[in-house]
Every structure is written in C-alpha cells, then in structure tokens.
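Recall that a protein's primary structure is simply its ordered list of amino acids. Everything else, from secondary elements to tertiary packing, is in principle encoded there. The following example makes that idea concrete.
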Amino acid sequence: MEELGQFKRALIDATAGAISGGISRTVTSPLDVIKIRFQVQLEPTASWALLRKDLPGSSKYTGMFQATKDILREEGLPGFWRGNVPALLMVMPYTAIQFAVLHKLKTFASGSSKTVDHINISPYLSYASGALAGCAATVGSYPFDLLRTILASQGEPKVYPNMRSALFDIIKTRGFRGLYAGLSPTLVEIIPYAGLQFGTYDTFKRWTMAWNRLRSSNTSSTMDDSPSSFQLFICGLAAGTCAKLVCHPLDVVKKRFQIEGLQRHPKYGARVEHHAYRNMVDALRRILQLEGWHGLYKGIVPSTIKAAPAGAVTFVAYEFTSDWLESILT
C-alpha cells in the first residue's frame, strides 16, 4: 500500500510539473524567442555598443522593441512562438522530472511525504534539493532544449523547416553527441539557477507564512497562515528574477555551444563557427574579450522579464494543479 502511495505522489508531482511548465512556457514564448536572438548574435545588441570601435557593427537586433517590431514585420505573430513545439517537448518532461525528484529529495530530507512539512527543512537543503532536481531534469530533456534553441534562433528564411530536419542535420554533422552540445555549461548553469530558484522560493514562502501569522496575531483572527495565490505569485516572481540575474552569462555560453557550426542566414549576422570555443571557460573569456561585458548579458532584459512571470506562473500553476490532483487521487 505504501508503494502505491509513493507512485501516486510521484504521478501527482510529475503531472502537475508538466502542466505548469507547459502553461508557463507557452505564455512566455515571445520573450524567450527575443532572448535567444540576442544571445546567439555575435554583433552588439544595444545601440550604444555600436559606438565602440573595437566591436563589429551591422547588428540585426539592437534593442528589445526594435527586435519585437522586426520579428513581427518579417515573421508575423507565429515568429514569436518559433521553436515552441520542441520547447514544450523539453519543458514538460523537464518540469515533470524536476518537481518529482524535488519532492522525493524533500521527503528524504524532512522524513515526511507531506508537502506542508517540506517548508520546514533547512534552507541549505532547499537549495541543494533544487540544484539536484534541476540536474536530473536537464539531462533527461536536453536534446529538446537544443532543438528549441536552433529553431528559435534561425529567423526567416528558415534554414530548417521543421524539428525533424534540424534533428537529422545535427546527427549528420555532429553525430548523436551533437544532441548534447553545450550540456556541460548547462549543468554548471542549472546547479546555481535551480538551487537559487527553488531555494529562494521556499525562503520567500516561509517569510510570507511568518508574515501571515504575525498579521493574524495582531488582528486576533484565526486566518490560515498559508500563502494566497497572489503571494505565491510574488514569491515565484522574486525567485525567478534572482536566479536569472545571477546565472545569465552561463545561459549565453550554453546557447553559443548549441548553435556553433550550424547554418545561419547571413542577414542575422555572423554564425558561430564550428569549434569556436574550446570549453566553457574559453567561451567566457572569448566573449568577454571580443564583445565586452555586455556580450555576457545579451538578452538580459527579455530574459529577466520572461524569468519573473515564468517562475511565478510555474509555481502557482504547480501548487494549484498539485492540490487539485491530490483531491482527486487521494
């Protein structure tokens, strides 16, 4: 019977994670497409950077509003959801694995499978659980992340008409190992990113519950200290923002590895040549040398604007879906 309970719990966490991830990814896709276009562009992505003599000019995208206008004019509204199918194939198993593993780790750390008891575990264990869950989810869904990046970055005219043609070309030019190009910087990125995202979310949630208890005691009411949906949204918003601001340079490096050596239409600027970077450290050094500090933060504006609501929507959707599924299955 205990085994059935564990299976039900894993099923609830995986299903709620997949649903919340799919909703969040679809809602924030336009910002993700703009972010990727900035990250894979070797030329400057800000107008002021073009004034520097040591940086290449002739940039396709030079600002968020200009990029939005150009994508809308050249590709129409569907352009903002380019690569969304592989993105959903990536993010739904990713969040399913992430939340299922996270719950298992928190159950082990707290000695209880009840979600309400997980909020009391050490903040350090919250960060560590989030980091390990993020690693497991990344390895399990990475090829779809790679395909998403390639399709979202190509623009018009398309180099790859669909996901299958991109997949076959990657296998043909890079082999099956090519499906995991950029995995190392991704894992290095995801450890602090997932750790910060889940750790800070739990921390903000604890603070919110303490605030609710304090407010309840001051008003002599018997109000439950559980966070409201709006408070959960704010906690997720803050957690997503904190994690993205810290880890963005590693995301830029990951995108460069994912598209290096692949075809790219000339109007979108220079392509990242095959073996352009020896390793992650070399990539960071070369980007810094050739593009300046700004190069490591290309796409930071749409990325942060996206990360905040994406984190908020994911956590709120997960909490509600998980509660709903628990009420049905238990």
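The CA atoms of residues 27 and 105 lie 29 Å apart. Residues 183-219 form the longest helix (37 residues).
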